[in-house]
Amino acid sequence: MLSCGSSARHVEPRANSGWGAIVQRATGEGRPTLAVVARDGDVRGAIALAVTTDGIDTDRGALVPVALAALVQQRMQARGIDAVAMGSWSGWRLHAVVASPMDAASVVVAARAALLTPVGLNDPAMPTVLRKADALAQRPLHDAALADVARCTGEPYGSFAARTPSFAELEAWRAAAHGLGRIAVAVAGASALSDAAANALERAPPWPVAAPLLVDAWPPMQAQATVYDASGELPPGDARIIVTARTPAPERAVVAAAALGSAHGALASRLAALDAPGQLRAVIAAAHGDGGCLAATIDLDGREFGSDFPASIATAAALARQELAVELADATPPPNVGRDLAMRASDPRDAAERAAWWSLAGRRSDVSDDETRIRITVGVASARDAAELSATTRASAIVAEIDRATLAWHAAIVESRTRVESGQGETWILLASPCGTLPESADDAGIGAAVALAAAEQAQAIAGDARVEPLVAPDAIGLFVHGPPRPSETPQAQARRLADVVARAFAAEGLEPEQTAKARARLLLQASQVDARTNAALASALAPGHPSWIEPGGTLLGMASASDELIAMRAAAIRAGPLRVAVLANDDLAQADAAVHAIDRWIARRPGESRTCPAIPAAVLPRSGTYSIDRPAGAPSEAILAIPLPLGEEPTRTATWLAATLDGDDGMLAHALGGARHEAPLARTWNATVVGVPRAPALAIRVSASDDALDMAVAQARALIDRVRQGALGEADRTRAAAAIEGARLTSLLDPSERALELWRGAGRTPAPSLEALRSFSASVLRDEALVIVAARPPRIVRQTPSTSPGRASKAR
Q1: What pTM, to 2 d.p., does this model score?
Q2: Measured in Å, how far apart are the chain's first and last C-alpha atoms?
Q3: How many CB atoms within 10 Å of residue 163?
Q4: Exposure winner among 252, 370, 577, 684, fewest CB in 10 A?
C-alpha cells in the first residue's frame, strides 16, 4: 500500500534498490515504465496498473482511490475488457487477464484512455462511482484515531468527511492522480506479452505529469499513545492495541512482518505469557512511496485484567512496541524482495499487481535507513454493568501507564555477566534463577528441578542444532544453551537465536503438561534410587524442612506431592523473580550484548516491580545424631558423616580446603581407612566434599565398606575428625590440598559449561588459607556433638545354630 495523511509535504523518494530484480522496461520519454515479471506455464497472462493518491484530498479517507478505481473499471468494461479494480486507503490497483499479445496491447490502450479521459457532467461511469462511494460509506472508521492505522495498512475505510463526490471533484482527483510520477504498469507472463504491452505504451502519445507526490510528515520519535472508545467494536470490557511502525525502507517492514506474524513467534508467545494474555489478531506490512509501514493488532480479554486494567493494557502495549522495534532492527532484507513477492504469487494477476505496486514504493530520503517511528493506538470498550471512569480519565490513565511501561521495557531487568572466548566452536548461555531451591520445603522438594527439566525438554524441541541442558543446584535453577553458528549467520544473530531458545522456554512461556509429566516421572525415578534415599536422609537432617537445600533434585515425598499445577506455579514464580544470565561469546562483546538484550526482551515486567528472592526462612538447626537407612539385599553398605558449617563465603572456602586435605588417594582419609597400617583397607571407597552451599553448608565424608567393616570405618573417620580438630593438620596436608584443588579446578574448567557456571556465580580463584587458619577453623567447627551420621546398609541376616539335644551332645562328646 502507499501512503497519505493530513500533514503532508513534498518529498522526493529515493530510488528503490529492493526491486531491481523485477525488470523495469523503458517505454520512451514521457511514458510510464513497464515492470516485467517473466513467467511461463500460465494459461493466461495479466496486465496490472497501480496508482497512488497520496496527498490528494486526504481528509476524504479512501474515497478518492475507491472512486477512481470504480471510474477506470467501468470505462474499461464498457470497452469490453474484463478488468477488476480495487481501491485502498491511498491508492488503487487494476488487473486484467490477457490471452495473447493482441489482448495485452488492447488492455494497455484501453487503460490509457480510461485513465486520461476527463470526467464529464453526465459521464456514464458516475452511477458506478456513486454506488462504490455509498458502499464505502457503510464501512466507516470506528473512530478518527484509527485514520493513522488505516493509512499504515492501506485498508479502505470511509472517513467522517467522505461525502458523495461531484463530477467536478472526481475530475480533479483524476487529473491529479492519473499521470507520470503516480502510475505504474506491469505485465506477468511470456515475453511476447511484455513486448506487446511495451510497444503499445511506446506508440501512444506522452502522458501528462501528475500532481507532485506528497507524503506525510513522520510522527515524533516519542509519540504519545492514542486512546479511543471501542464500544460497539469490541465486546464490553475488552481492549484492542494497534502498534504501527514506519520504516524508511519498505522491504524492512515486509521482512519483519513474517517473523512478527508467526503464531509461534516471539510476539505471539510473549503476549500469551502475560498475566493478562494478549492474542495477536493480525500483522500487516505495507509499502508506501515514502517507506514501509507495519501494524500489529492485539486483542485483550477484559475478564483477565483484574483491578488494574490500565497497567494490563500498558504492559501488552509496551511489550508489542519493543518487539516491533527489535524485529525491525534485526530485519535483513535480501536484495530481491520485490521479485520474490511477485514470483511467489501463484496467479499471474497477483504477480502483475504486486510488481506494479512495488514499482511505486520508495525509500524515504530525509531519515536514516535504520530509523523507525512507532505509534500505539488503544481502543477500550466500556464494561457492561460496571462503574466506569470517564473516557478522558480512562484515556489519561492508560497513556500514563504506557509511558511508564515503555520506560520499564527499556530498562534492563536481567543481571548479566559476559566474557569473550574467541575461537571457541560454540557460544554458551546460562539463564538461571539465583533463588535456586530457597522457596522449597519438604512437601515440594525438587519442584524447581522439575521446572528446569521440563523447560529444557520444551526448549530442545525448538532448538534445532543447538543443545539445551538443565541446571539444578541449591543456588541456581535454570538452563544452558549452546551451539555453533549456522552457515552465513552473523555472531549477533547466532547469539540472539540461542538466547531466544532459552529465554522463551524458561522465562516466558508456560510449561507444556506433557513435558511437566515427563520431568516429574524422571525425578521420581531418580529419588527412588538407593543413593538418592541416603542423600535425602542426610538432607533432612542437615536442613530440616528444606531437604532440597542439600539435594536439589528433591525427595520421593516432594516429587510425589508435586502436581502439574504446583510445578506451573513454581515456574511462574521463577519468571517473576530475579534472573541472571552468563554468556561465553565466541566472537566479541557485541555478540554477548546481543544475547543479553535478546533474553531481557523476553522477561515480562511491570513499572515499579521488585524482583527479589523469597525471604530466607527462620534459622534451620541441623539435627545431629545417627540415622539408619535400609538398602536392598546385596547392595554395598555406606555411611555419610556430615558436620554443619557456618554460613558465608569464607567458611565455605576454608571448608573446601579442609575437605581437600581429607580427600584423595593420599589424603588423610586414605591413611585412616586403608594403606599400609591395615592388612586390608577398612573401606572400599571414601571421599570428602562440601555440600549444601549456600544455605545449609556442611562438610560431608562418605565411606563405603563391607557391612562387617562399616562400623569400624565410621569409628576411624570420627577419630580422624577429632585429631584434625586438635591440630593434626600439617603443612604437607595443606600443600597436597592446594595441588588437588588447582588440579580439580583446571580439569573442571576444560568443560565450557563449568566456565559458564563459574562466570554466572561470579566465582574464581580464591586466596589459599594459611595453615593457622585451617587449624583454627577445624578447632571451632569439627565438634563431635554436631555430627550427623547416616548409615545405609542392607538388612542383616541373623544365622541361628540348630539346637542339639542333651543325648546327642553326650554322644558327641
Answers
A1: 0.78
A2: 117
A3: 13
A4: 370
